Amino acid sequence: MDAAELLNGFATVLTPQNLLLVLAGCLLGTVIGVLPGVGPVAGTAILIPLTMGLDPAGAIIMLAAIFYGSQYGGTITSVLINTPGEAASAITCIDGYAMTKKGKAGVALGIAAIGSFIGGTLATVGLVVAAAPLSSLGLKIGPPEFFALMVLGMSLLVGLAGTSMVRALISGSLGLLLAMVGTDPHAGLPRFSFGVVHFFDGLEFVAVLVGLFGLGEILAGLADRRQASADTQVGRLLPNRQELRDSSGAIGRGSLIGFLLGIIPGMTGSASSLLAYGAERKFARNRDQLGEGAIEGVASPESANNAHANSALIPLFTLGIPGSPTVAVLMGAFLMNGLTPGPMLFETDADIAWAVIASLFVGNLMCLVLNLPLIRVWTMLLKVPRPLLTSLILVFLVVGSYSINNSTIDVMVMFVFGIVGLFFRRLDIPLAPLVLTLILGPFMETSLRRSLSMSLGDFSIFVTRPISLTLLVLAAVIILSPLLRLRRRGQDKQDSRFDRMREDSEV
Amino acid sequence: MEHSRGDALGARDGDDGRSPESVGPQPDSPWMAYAGAGVVLAIGLYAIVASLDLGYWDEGPGPGFFPFWLGVLLAVLAVIWAVQLATGAAGMPVREAGPSGTRDVVLTLLGLGASVLLLEVLGYQLTMFLLVLFQLLVVSHRRWLESLIFAAVAGFGVYTLFAYVLQVYLPTASLPFLAALGL
Amino acid sequence: MKKSMLVSGLCLVVALFGAGCAKAEKSGDGATDENWPSGETMEMIVGYSAGGTTDTMARELAAELEKKLDVQIQVVNQDGAGGQQAYTDLANAEPDGLTIGTINYPTILSTMIDKSKGATYKLDDFQLLANHVNDPRITVVQPDSDYKNADDLVEYAKENPGKLRGATSGLAGGGHFSMLKLEEATGADFSPVHFDTGQEDAKAAFLGGHVDVYFASVGDALEIIESGDGRPVGLMDEERSDLLPDVPTFKEQGIDVQEAGMRGYSLPAGVPEERLKILSDALEEIITSPEHKKALAKLSLVPAYMDPEEYAAWLDEQLPTVEKFNEVAMEDK
């Protein structure tokens, strides 16, 4: 790292024009993040023409701001109306919305903003300090390691079973089956597509999530005639000291996980936040409450997805490899402004590169400062009378799912999964396993196939490579550990049942 | 029948003799759960059948491998679940929606479903306008003026915002006379 | 009472229609006047996701076309199904000359040929407009490997069939075809590893040392060749590339294998002659200009203009080859 160049970068950013661009980017990014369907990819792509009139540094600074700014915005609808603004915010819906139902919407949004800021900033520090060695590390993760990582992810979330293992397995298996829709990675045959070209790439992920969570929640609410008064309590707007202390571990873990996974080419923000959430199952102080409004369930994935967004810039800058479709759009912006990201970037255009990096620090701070006061505004939404809010949310869902691909097919998918979501809730089938397998499933199958192509059909490739072996062993340990605990718990249950019998007989 | 105007929560007292809180766990009619298990079983069987056409193994799992076994797993799980229900071991709080709850859900779905089908026929603006109007008037029994305003905002306002400000293209009408009107 | 409410409601709706009138801005599709398409809004369907090379080059071209023809061009990314969705949309678009789409070889042909994909278009449904660039295939090996040229690589691959793993950007894509053509011409045998999620994943796998060969295109591989992270053994083109003058072609080395990466544009079939001419002349001027060549070089691309007839003829020529290799591809996965 060259301190002088970084300082130069700051000098470039801290000019009125560039600061204004960062601000505009954060604002636009937040708005884009809020709208489901108009995710970072579409949003940034739309705005590329707008930035054509700016100088290269300014254009990229603004686009980068839109990019990480949208990670802040995606949380808002997840927490308030259980509708993910984009795939990476999906996992936040679970505990975030549960917190809203408990009247803690403001706290959830607050901790999300703080966690996002810390995650993003820490990742940028990592980028500055160790970009080159980290990117080589990222490259070491080939298909077998990727597969092992996905298995590890699945193992961490075994604990999301809820009350019934059978129903959790049904949910997970359905998710995996849905993940199989589309062109299979090996033979190129369309599977379960019913001849619809739109399904050749699989079911549109965000449409499924928006339906399951957003529409499903609305329908379940209508069916239940639940008391809405609890929902409208906004409560405190910011987390208190206890909550901050509880989340500090989660933020740290989430940031680390998001940061490390972001340097792996091909890893998406949704997978990162999912794995971070999974880690909380093992490490969070309030882990028993995960799924019902534990603050770690918001802090961790939010830190992870912002850390991921910022560290995904590492392979872009050092190797010219965009880690995900969103980063690819940013790469397009580089290319259109005459810059070529990759090993040559720091030789040919170092000043612009460092200006962009400096803008990441400034921008993350600005996003935090922007988002905290806005929490009050967002939470006002909850005060709108329920039926009016419901009708507006319906429109929101339609617009959101349509604008993903400019296709009404996605709106139909959203509709169908809304019904599915309703039945899942009524039949007490947990949603989280389905989300998990839907996100991780495609990665698993693809990396499995590629690994076998690499090893020419030999399965031992997974255990002969050190990183992959380590991850698989870890996964095995995690899967087996509850079995040991179950035996002990079984003993406890028997004891307590005996106690209760005694009490009953004494009545 | 006169509809009393609902309070801000949309709940109505004295509508069917039950206040909202009394719709609690009623595990004596789990037909919905059996239906659910049936659906899962059907999906599992379909997956098994469909996967037979795709290849099974080819130097590694072929396209049909995972779908086949997932189908088997789903079918087995569905049976286990049904057995659990029958023996009362499922541990599910099966809630019945009150009659008004079911009505709301069905109406909302009908309205939403119709809008999805009409989106490209009538265009976004008109369809959303009608949807919100329907949702507020028929499902939630709100007042006319309020509903119309909301519907207008949702249909036309949102369209303007998206199409002109954000440059996100929402569907326009495919019926010629509507299209000529700019819808 | 309800019925009258309904009626008054409908009246209100009709009134709002009137308000909607003000927003009407349908473009005229009558006869072509001399100034066509000045003032119109055109649409360009890009069959790839935003940020990729095809998308970037299309947007650059669109920007120049806007200036030349005094139009507004909306670029729409429609990256479903490996480009098939975009081709379908293009084929079904109004042939008024206002909708253009990107055409990539070989996917335009392979999607048509592969029955399982159920494509609804044929070559006749398109009126080709111009070819923009040629991004020929190049075979790259690990820099620390023993293969210094094409012969070394081919020899090893013949003596050790299937041992060398080659990264491609997807089954039956350009990279895979380049591998198959090489195998057919020399008897070499590689094992493909397909990265259908995008060529960046193929590049990452190659850089991480997980595969031995990278069946790339010049645009994909230029950076890593220049930085020394990849060693090129042969270019699959008639002549050496201007961007890589030191890299010999396979032909020079005695192996006659060509795999072009032509990318161009098309209209739906049925566009009036005059409009076709206006558009194709404009594109010709832009694409053959020296400034554009420089702009493309920054994207690691080289212009290769072909006019509508040439382009259509070229695609027709490739049809039998693509059919043959598509079948081979399906067997040799």
Describe the structure.
The complex is a heterotrimer of chains A (507), B (183) and C (333). Chain A has 507 residues and is mainly α. Chain A has 22 helices and two strands. Chain A has a two-stranded antiparallel ribbon with strand order 1-2. Chain B has 183 residues and is mainly alpha-helical. Chain B has helices at residues 31-51, 65-87, 99-122, 124-139, 144-165, 176-180. The longest helix of chain B has 24 residues, at 99-122. Chain C folds into two domains: 33-134 and 261-331, Bordetella uptake gene, domain 1 (D-Maltodextrin-Binding Protein, domain 2); 136-253, Periplasmic binding protein-like II (D-Maltodextrin-Binding Protein, domain 2, 3-Layer(aba) Sandwich), CATH 3.40.190.10. A six-stranded mixed β-sheet of chain C has the order 2-1-3-10-4-11, with helices on both faces. In chain C, helix 2 (53-69) packs across helix 9 and helix 6 (174-186) packs across helix 11. Chains in contact: A-B, A-C, B-C. Chains A and B meet through helix 8, helix 9, helix 18, helix 19 and helix 20 of A and helix 1, helix 2, helix 3, helix 4 and helix 5 of B.
Helix-strand layout with pairing:
The complex is a heterotrimer of chains A (507), B (183) and C (333).
Chain A: H1 3-13, H2 16-34, H3 40-47, H4 56-81, H5 90-101, H6 105-139, H7 143-156, H8 165-179, E1 182-183, E2 190-191, H9 205-224, H10 229-232, H11 241-262, H12 269-283, H13 296-311, H14 313-319, H15 325-336, H16 345-348, H17 350-380, H18 386-405, H19 408-426, H20 432-454, H21 461-464, H22 466-506
Antiparallel strand pairs in A: 1-2
Helix pairs in contact in A: 1-17, 2-4, 2-17, 3-4, 3-15, 4-5, 4-6, 4-13, 4-15, 4-17, 5-6, 5-13, 6-11, 6-13, 6-14, 6-17, 7-20, 7-22, 8-20, 9-18, 9-19, 11-12, 11-13, 12-13, 18-19
Chain B: H1 31-51, H2 65-87, H3 99-122, H4 124-139, H5 144-165, H6 176-180
Chain C: H1 2-21, E1 41-46, H2 53-69, E2 72-77, H3 84-91, E3 99-104, H4 107-113, E4 126-134, E5 137-141, H5 150-159, E6 164-168, H6 174-186, E7 190-194, H7 199-207, E8 213-217, H8 218-226, E9 231-235, E10 262-268, H9 273-287, H10 290-298, E11 302-306, H11 308-331
Helix pairs in contact in C: 2-9, 6-11
